[in-house]
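Escalated from tier 1: G3I holo job.
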Amino acid sequence: MNRARTLKAMVTLAVAGTLAAGMTVILAPAASAGTTLRAAAAEKGRYFGAAVATSKFSTGTYMTVLNREFNSLVAENEMKWDATEPQQGRFNYTGGDRIVSHAQANGMSVRGHALLWHAQQPGWAQSLSGSALRNAAINHVTQVATHFRGKIHSWDVVNEAFADGGSGGRRDSNLQRTGNDWIEAAFHAARAADPGAKLCYNDYNTDGVNAKSTGIYNMVRDFKARGVPIDCVGFQSHLGTSLAGDYQANLQRFAALGVDVQITELDVTQGSNQANIFGSVTRACMAVSRCTGITVWGVRDCDSWRGSDNALLFDCNGNKKPAYDAVLNALNAGGGITPSPTTPTNPTTPPPGPGGCTASLSLNSWTGGFVATVRVTAGSAATNGWTVTTTLPSGAAVTNTWSASASGNTGTVQFTNVSYNGRLNPGQTTEFGFQGTGSGPGSTPTCTAN
Ligand code: G3I
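Tier 2 regenerated the structure:
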């Protein structure tokens, strides 16, 4: 008899005995123990995820374990800048789309990794600098987050921007050299492109209170104080043979700033301590009510970037390791989460006028460039098409437009619907965007419908 049936039989016997004694009983619903990682995490309101590669999607053992145990996916490489924009302005979403489709078909959420990172940049981006790089980077964030809009649970908007060692400061990189505000510019652009995704900062060597994690803590505190849209912090947790004693306290201090925390790339060197460390990390997450999920960086040991470290929960044949049991037990023993809403900074939709249409514009700008998101709202009658007119200040120019076609790129510029977003029912909205150099438009755009 399996465990669930044994429990059921015991409850039946107890109830029968109590009723026989003439007493009234009220049965509380029994909390059942999850028998897979995804079930156990879901019972506690959390996800349990894995980094995946589509090149493994035809491997039977891999897929069996993946679909049985995980309810969140992240692309190990296929949503990175070099994969999604191999040539400037030419986007390739093949791998990312396949991962999203697999997740959707199997009741899994998706973490997006990573919009901006100093590593795995395409060659063309590595050769840019200054405002050309800044504009390209923000365009990348906007385009990729727009493509996946509505499909991503959490985005790693910026990855690994802080230096190792004792400085607590930023890492030197081509992105950092575009100006210290590159991180907040990326978060604003990501929010405008996908208001429903949680926006995370993600880093490693942050597994306790140390100079690097404190530098990140100070940035998050500053972002929250100034309204920069950050929702979560990812702790990669690529771990060795010991775990910092203040691992949980560190998660907790970030949560106290008003952000969710997530364990995003967990793997642990195999050895006598592997199961203990996996268990301790899971217990720490479960003890922090804003720790919303755990992702391990691969499925089986032989899928791992860490090769001979055998750093994951399954061996190469898909067998569960002792570390698996430690994680499952910790999930089942843990507490629930406190869900938090995202706080979109998009403008509210203006009331529709009689017939016609209205347009509102939200601007994310920095020295030398901007991204504008325009929301078009049909009035009291349906539209078959629309044109939005805006005026750019002197010296400004539109360099890129999405979900609309632009006529002109300086001075007065007109944006007309594309094939799929001209038809709007009364009161319905659609959005398009454009990017430019110089300063963005200062006044409200006008909208005409046909
Ligand atoms: O796809 C090419 C293949 O065509 C080529 O033949 C082969 C030859 O080297 O390279 C393959 O690309 C490799 C890619 O992984 C896919 O396997 C790259 O060389 C290799 O550099 C790349 O490594 C990835 C690494 O990020 C790059 O920095 C790892 O898979 C990936 O696990 C790792 O993930 C990072 C996170 O994104 C951020 N945090 C740290 C983590 C571990 O380094």
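The radius of gyration is 25 Å.
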